[in-house]
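Hey, can you fold this?
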Amino acid sequence: MWQGLLTAKDIPNIYIDSFSNDYIDDVFISIAGPITSYAKEKIEKSANEKIKEFTSTAKNVGVQLLSLVAKAGIKASTLGVIKDSDIEEFKEIRNDVAQDASAIAGNFVSERLSSHAKDIEQLELFKKSLSRLAIDLGKSKDKPLVIIIDELDRCKPTYAVEIIEKIKHLFSVKNVVFVLVMHKKQLEEAVKSVYGVNIDACTYLQKFINIETILPKIISGIYVNDIKTYSQKLYDAHELETWTDKGALIENIDFLAEHFNLSLRQLERVYTIITIFYASSAKNHFRVAQLLSFLAVIKVFHPSLFIDLLYEKATYEHVCKVTGLTQNESGQSFLILWIEFSLMTNEEFKVSAKQDKMDGLSFCIRDCGIKREKLMSMFAQKLNTLTG
């Protein structure tokens, strides 16, 4: 959504899903690549030289970043494979492999010392070319190139840490702004995983992050509309076959998403759980859409409560206390009624002041062969078995 607002204001922007790229060993390429692709798509043909300049300098920097480990690994992997080959270009590699490890390391360090000044020059050329390219993309210095790096907290620790380090040291230039979308506590754990538990991860991250902000968790009309729109899109995208349950599912999931202030990612997980359940169900199977919606959301938002429901350890009073759900919820009394109905003890059921309504729900389950007090745990077990 925010990326859409940037586009609407003609501010150049690139979205990079770091989690989907963390299988790539070269972090530099995973950032420089999308910049190149975006520039080729957006920039005018008259400015093609800027793209060529950026690509050329990026290639030079990429070559510099090849590690000693990678170089030695390539050589070692060819040992024995090319020993009888007469291909001229492999002779040097073959001879290098024959040397001992200390000689290889010594030669490499000597080479790096000799080329140090050139490396710095190449890096500066790259940064200048990136800054100039950003100006061309924004058609002004007032519109920087915004690069959104999402899903950092979901990456493997080494990849996540390397991303923020590479951004700071290689891509931090005028006219380019990076926005890192992450769960900071999880990223701090990634830093500890890489550098040890004794490191002050919060202070370490401050070296790389200039401005921090937290997205406000405010339930507003705009938020509700976004949730409902995205919820419908998720339902359609999963091509769900829910027979007569569609209306109840969407209505209750939307309500619970608003009540618990679910993130869009959490909403995706809810629909994944619902999709897997219905994919293994049939039209004539017994289902209660209200309870399925509730359990799918609780499984994502409050796993410990889900476990209590699974093992019949949660009372209705406890669920209300933990979730904040009450019968006073506007327009959702039927959902709350089903929750209460399935969690009441037999003694509570007999003296309920809502006996007429409870009898109506009892009528709904009369032919399913399942006891009222087993409904919640039964559906929880099915969701847990199918989705882990």
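Oh, and this one too while you're at it.
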Amino acid sequence: MIKKTVGAFCVAALLGSGAAVAQDKWYPSPFGKDDQAGRSNLMTPDQVKKAMGYIKQGKTISLARTYSDKMPLFGHRVFATRGTNGL
């Protein structure tokens, strides 16, 4: 029984370590190794100008969500706001 447990643990550890190594090489960024902006590197002034051409009306739509302690939640979940006192 102990041999099976140790064997299963070793197999799991080997598989897990292989996944961690593979994750580093998962998909190389075309913008360099230390890139943080991602695809937003492609946002140029010309692209913004082109996007502005699609605007027909000057309307804005809020995508914000109002959170309240009265909103329905599932199970024993509670909505609570916690402050950090500016830390």
